[in-house]
């Protein structure tokens, strides 16, 4: 293997590649570069120092906010800050144009220049403790070699041998202290190894970017943009470029809520949005204004606040969407006069009402003359967003035109800036305030059009987060970060497309690269692949704000571009005109020179591209993307997010009726995103429908017509027909209950027919028996069809005709993707009837399961044969026993499985560790394991399903760390703790809602107050019911450090347990591991301590308790448990579960061996009980026990060293 050489473009990440300089910016840069190169050529024979100053001057002109100078022996460095006190960010090794012997070349990588830069880097990392180096560059001004710091880390800093030698050289401990010796004898051999291992090095030569025919130095136009990008601080110093779609713009969010009359606060661990506290309320904020009007209408007090918030959210959704539309109109027409959300155009709520329903909800020819004259340039949108909601029309709500205008105090941290360059203060009209506030931010719908004069960019991704926050004000729901949705969507879509293309074209591709080879230069093959991709069906059954569907949409278009199968609406190939990427969770479109595409009306090619992207998106949204959510607000926001993606690519066309240029209307994609409880359905997936009435074909045609119509009256008629057809399917369903009923009717009819040869009495008895069974069967069928449990359910069997076969049979989706809700069934959130339903419908889930497990099992039914699933779920899925059947189902039924654990905190507002699970059928059989850490995803191991099926848990760290065989050896030479050596029992539970006698409070708030008062605890023995109480912190290795607390023991406790559990000889072990050499704490007691479930009791001991304490407290037990149950893969350190402690391995041993360890444990207990402990003796005894226990497990010296080196 040799170095992995990459180009200038490849050296820059996609975010950098999306930087679009203005023409004047490129011109200024070009002049600076030309001046530098001109001076360099003129002074070619000057010294290295002289030429280095030329480079320094050039870089300073481009990076005015960074200090640039030498540093110690380093030729040149770009510092991370403005002065020399900051750290070094980019290291340079500079060579003169005449010093060809030391300059790195593509043919001579291991040059002195490379050796020097490695030495500089290691000196900075080792002895200056600099963690902020981004790049290392070797250059002579024309030839540039660029190496990322991660390559230096991988090949040099993590090279223990090299680090040891460099450190010894620094301390004069090597054969020579000459730098030449360091370069040639220490560093050069390791560079050879790095080259062999494929170190990634970018190279470009500025001489190749020059126009050769020019007499003076001139930069080729095709190279200028890429060179501009390379020399930006965003590239060289990895500066943040765009608003991170994963981050909430807190300033925007807080002020928006203030205008609405709301604020965010914490309720327990959940953040919720609620009405401002009385002291902060403003009469003319939206919520307060609405409440006043609702009160005048005599709307009940208990409905006023909730309805006011709902109305405010609906109106704000519309206004934010219109702000994006306004941004598009201004951009498309290069004319600021297209702005319409301004106080001079909309100075009353009545005018805003007219905008909503007299402009955006009406075609141009249907608007009245006054409105058309004022807002004729604003398009008709054909969106249900601009149809009045039921609440707006009901007696319990109002429409926005009913609100009066008035002044409110400006927010203390407002974005509004006055003429004095300071934040504005005082009062301002609410409408003027809203529009000025919105205008303080940049609402460009693409990162390529960001206005540098504005505040932070509020693009579609950031707005998606805002939408989810304000619409999920009740839920405190979690927003899946963009880097996660991007990764999951990209990986899953690419796998699904390979399968789809193979199926459609009869190919046998394994990768996207294989498809590229299959397409070759054939336009016909490109069309076929494009059509196959268009047939994809993707569903998110817990769709939320639609973030996953937006990411899938972008990834499909980017993949089509990558495969070169992009066509316009007329079927003409456009892959030679543009290239598409997903950057920072947004679709970026560039021309072939790397310039970001900008839609220009009147430009034929520009219009062709814009129209093509719009129709590509439209087709994907109409035919490929589906979603369901139980929350109507989430569904509305999902629809809104998808419309925004279309809005970005909307284009002008000549309207036949009005004859004016009109922005294209949005399709009715709302039918693909439905409200419902995905987990509930009365019709199973194998239900059969009688298709003789051809209703199914009519249903499919109606759905297609609904999506395409832009006539609201027609849309309403089609919707009514669809609903009637769906209800009629109830009568056509062939279910087990109906089959049973039909069979009984047939049998009863036979029994009722009097035969001349049968006894009438016999027939009548049979008839009576069957009649009773028939009555019961009718009840069962009626119960299923009319059960209110299913009222809010999702009838997957009929709601999406696109995933049904020609005969109406359920086929399923190609891909099910998402972030399902994480709700514990044991948290009293489900009724007994729902729990019973879940047990019947999702048999792979434990009765105490989390809802993510139910959604995972639902996905098994939703996905078609040959399809795939991609979910992000809690990583407890890997190790908790109740998910074992789900794990085994995946490993037995799916061929290509990927399990990726995240060590990063994915959700800022949720203390939960997560993992990504991917699974596909009909692919080469393998299980891939990976880890997300530091924002990077690394695949660390590959194994077979069989090897994981033989284990109780999935342990990524142990498999990737190569300790699986060691764990197996430990298990082979031992027996599990429970049954063989003792009985492990949970402690008591003092508090739980509705438990105990008398019952503890049922109400959530009352119980919280009750528990906080700690009514059963005391610092003294108040009466005979009080017993000594141990908390987890009282339990230490080999001793108890009792805090002096007492607990009143009795039936009033939620779960007091059998009192015998807390009496007599027993071992105690803490469930929560500690980060130490020894992670577990166990000791012996025969006193009557009681304890809660943070401690487990081990009773009915069958061997010496001291022997067991020695084993449980040994290092090998810590190593085994942490590796076996994969606690290394979690950030939030969990408790060891009862079932896991029961499985602890106790080594096979003789009585003599047990006694030897027991004696040492006794000495340790005695020493630990002293006030002054001899730590050297403790360490010695611990080591002796560790070695003896490892011997009992049969470990060899290498395996023992692995355990010795283990430490959390």
From TrEMBL:
Keywords: Coiled coil, DNA-binding, Methyltransferase, Restriction system, S-adenosyl-L-methionine, Transferase. It comes from Streptococcus ruminicola. Its EC number is 2.1.1.72. It catalyses: a 2'-deoxyadenosine in DNA + S-adenosyl-L-methionine = an N(6)-methyl-2'-deoxyadenosine in DNA + S-adenosyl-L-homocysteine + H(+). Residues 1028-1146 form the TaqI-like C-terminal specificity domain. One of its GO terms (biological process) is methylation. Residues 760-787, 1151-1198 form a coiled coil. Residues 624-907 form the Type II methyltransferase M.TaqI-like domain. One of its GO terms (molecular function) is DNA binding. It comes from the Bacteria. Residues 7-244 form the DUF7149 domain. This is site-specific DNA-methyltransferase (adenine-specific). It is an enzyme of class 2 (transferase). Residues 245-458 form the DUF7814 domain. InterPro entries: DNA_methylase_N6_adenine_CS, DUF7149, DUF7814, MethylTrfase_TaqI-like_dom, N4_N6_ade-DNA_methylase, N6_DNA_MeTrfase_TaqI_C, SAM-dependent_MTases_sf, TaqI_C.
């Amino acid at each position: 293997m040799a170095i992995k050489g990459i180009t200038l473009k490849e050296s820059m990440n996609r975010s950098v590649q999306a930087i679009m300089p203005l023409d004047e910016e490129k011109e200024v840069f070009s002049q600076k570069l030309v001046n530098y190169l001109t001076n360099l050529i003129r002074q070619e024979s000057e010294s290295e120092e002289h030429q280095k100053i030329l480079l320094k001057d050039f870089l300073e002109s481009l990076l005015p906010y960074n200090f640039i100078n030498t540093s110690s022996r380093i030729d040149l460095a770009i510092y991370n800050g403005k002065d020399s006190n900051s750290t070094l960010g980019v290291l340079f090794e500079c060579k003169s144009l005449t010093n060809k012997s030391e300059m790195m070349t593509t043919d001579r990588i291991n040059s002195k220049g490379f050796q020097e830069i490695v030495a500089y880097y290691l000196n900075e990392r080792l002895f200056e403790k600099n963690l902020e180096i981004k790049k290392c560059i070797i250059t002579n001004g024309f030839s540039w070699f660029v190496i990322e710091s991660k390559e230096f880390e991988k090949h040099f800093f993590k090279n223990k041998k090299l680090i040891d030698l460099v450190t010894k050289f620094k301390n004069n401990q090597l054969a020579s202290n000459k730098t030449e010796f360091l370069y040639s004898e220490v560093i050069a051999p390791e560079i050879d190894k790095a080259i062999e291992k494929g170190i990634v090095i970018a190279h470009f030569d500025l001489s190749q970017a020059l126009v050769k025919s020019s007499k003076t130095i001139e930069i080729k136009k095709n190279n200028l943009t890429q060179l501009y990008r390379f020399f930006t601080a965003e590239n060289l110093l990895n500066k943040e470029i765009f608003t991170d779609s994963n981050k909430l713009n807190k300033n925007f969010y807080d002020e928006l809520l203030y205008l609405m009359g709301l604020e965010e606060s914490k309720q327990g661990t959940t953040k919720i949005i609620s009405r401002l506290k009385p002291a902060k309320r403003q009469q003319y904020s939206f919520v307060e204004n609405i409440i006043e009007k609702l009160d005048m209408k005599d709307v009940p007090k208990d409905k006023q606040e909730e309805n006011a918030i709902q109305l405010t959210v609906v109106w704000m959704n519309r206004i934010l969407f219109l702000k994006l539309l306004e941004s598009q109109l201004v951009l498309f027409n290069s004319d600021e006069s297209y702005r319409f959300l301004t106080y001079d155009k909309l100075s009353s709520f009545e005018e805003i009402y007219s905008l909503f329903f007299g402009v955006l909800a009406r075609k141009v020819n249907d608007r009245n003359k006054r409105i058309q004259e004022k807002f004729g340039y604003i398009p008709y949108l054909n969106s249900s967003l601009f149809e009045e909601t039921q609440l707006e029309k009901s007696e319990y709500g109002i429409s926005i035109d009913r609100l009066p205008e008035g002044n409110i105090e400006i927010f203390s941290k407002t974005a509004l800036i006055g003429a004095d360059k300071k934040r504005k203060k005082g009062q301002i009209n609410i409408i003027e305030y809203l529009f000025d506030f919105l205008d303080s931010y940049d609402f460009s719908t693409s990162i390529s059009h960001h206005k540098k004069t504005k505040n932070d960019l509020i693009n579609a991704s950031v707005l998606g987060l805002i939408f989810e926050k304000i619409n999920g004000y009740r839920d405190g729901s979690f927003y899946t970060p963009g880097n996660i949705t991007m990764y999951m969507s990209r990986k899953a879509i690419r796998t699904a497309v390979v399968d789809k293309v193979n199926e459609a074209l009869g190919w046998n591709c394994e990768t996207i690269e294989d498809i590229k080879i299959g397409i070759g230069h054939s336009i016909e093959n490109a069309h076929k692949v494009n059509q196959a991709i268009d047939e994809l069906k993707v569903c998110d059954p817990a769709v939320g704000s639609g973030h996953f569907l937006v990411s899938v949409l972008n990834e499909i278009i980017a993949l089509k571009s990558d495969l070169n199968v992009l066509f316009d609406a007329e079927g003409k190939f456009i892959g030679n005109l543009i290239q598409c990427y997903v950057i920072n969770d947004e679709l970026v479109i560039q021309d072939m020179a790397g310039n970001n595409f900008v839609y220009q009306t009147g430009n034929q090619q520009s219009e062709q591209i814009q129209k093509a992207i719009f129709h590509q998106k439209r087709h994907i949204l109409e035919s490929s993307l589906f979603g369901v959510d139980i929350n109507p607000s989430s569904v509305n926001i999902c629809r809104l997010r998808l419309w925004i993606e279309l809005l970005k690519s909307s284009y002008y066309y000549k309207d036949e009726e009005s004859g004016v240029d009109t922005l294209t209307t949005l399709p009715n994609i709302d039918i693909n995103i439905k409200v419902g409880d995905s987990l509930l359905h009365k019709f199973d997936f194998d239900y059969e429908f009688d298709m003789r009435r051809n209703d199914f074909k009519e249903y499919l045609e109606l759905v297609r017509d609904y999506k395409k119509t832009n006539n609201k009256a027609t849309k309403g008629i089609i919707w009514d027909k669809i609903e009637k057809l769906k209800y009629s399917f109830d009568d056509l369903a062939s279910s087990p209950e109906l089959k049973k009923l039909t069979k009984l009717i047939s049998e009863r009819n036979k029994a009722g027919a009097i035969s001349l040869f049968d006894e009438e009495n016999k027939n009548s008895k049979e008839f009576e028996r069957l009649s009773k069974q028939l009555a019961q069967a009718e009840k069962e069928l009626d119960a299923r069809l009319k059960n209110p449990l299913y009222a809010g359910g999702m009838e997957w069997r009929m709601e999406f005709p696109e995933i049904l076969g020609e005969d109406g049979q359920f086929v399923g989706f190609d891909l099910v993707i998402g972030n399902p809700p994480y709700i514990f069934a044991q948290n009293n959130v489900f009724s007994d009837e729902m729990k019973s339903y879940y047990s019947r419908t999702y048999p792979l889930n434990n009765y105490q399961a989390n809802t993510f497990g139910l959604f995972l099992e639902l996905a098994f039914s939703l996905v078609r044969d040959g399809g795939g699933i991609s979910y992000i779920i809690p990583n407890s899925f890997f190790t908790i026993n109740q998910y074992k059947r789900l794990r085994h189902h995946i490993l037995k039924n799916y061929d290509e499985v990927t399990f990726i654990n995240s060590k990063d905190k994915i959700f800022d507002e949720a203390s939960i560790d997560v993992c990504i699970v991917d699974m596909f059928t009909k692919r080469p059989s393998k299980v891939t394991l990976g880890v997300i850490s530091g924002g990077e995803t690394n695949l660390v191991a590959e194994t077979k399903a069989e090897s994981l099926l033989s284990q109780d848990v999935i342990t990524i760290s142990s498999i990737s760390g190569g300790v699986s065989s060691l764990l197996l050896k430990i298990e082979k030479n031992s027996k599990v703790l429970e049954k063989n050596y003792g009985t492990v029992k949970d402690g008591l539970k003092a508090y739980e809602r509705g438990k105990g006698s008398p019952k503890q409070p049922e109400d959530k708030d009352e119980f919280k107050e009750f528990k906080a008062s700690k009514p059963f605890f005391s610092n003294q023995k108040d009466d005979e019911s009080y017993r000594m109480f141990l908390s987890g912190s009282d339990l230490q290795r080999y001793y108890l450090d009792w805090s002096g607390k007492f607990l009143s023991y009795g039936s009033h406790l939620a779960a007091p347990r059998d009192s015998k559990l807390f009496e007599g000889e027993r071992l105690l072990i803490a469930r929560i591991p500690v980060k130490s050499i020894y992670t577990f704490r166990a000791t012996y007691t025969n006193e009557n301590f009681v304890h809660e479930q943070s401690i487990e009791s081990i009773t009915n001991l069958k061997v010496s308790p001291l022997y067991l304490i020695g084993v449980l407290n040994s290092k090998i037990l810590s190593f085994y448990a942490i590796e076996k149950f994969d606690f290394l893969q979690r950030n939030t350190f969990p408790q060891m579960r009862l079932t896991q402690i029961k499985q602890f391995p106790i080594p096979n041993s003789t009585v003599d061996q047990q006694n030897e360890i027991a004696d040492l444990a006794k000495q340790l207990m005695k020493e630990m009980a002293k006030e002054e402990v001899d730590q050297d003796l403790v360490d010695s005894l611990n080591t002796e026990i560790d070695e003896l226990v490892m011997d009992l497990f049969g470990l060899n010296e290498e395996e023992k060293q692995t355990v010795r080196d283990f430490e959390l």
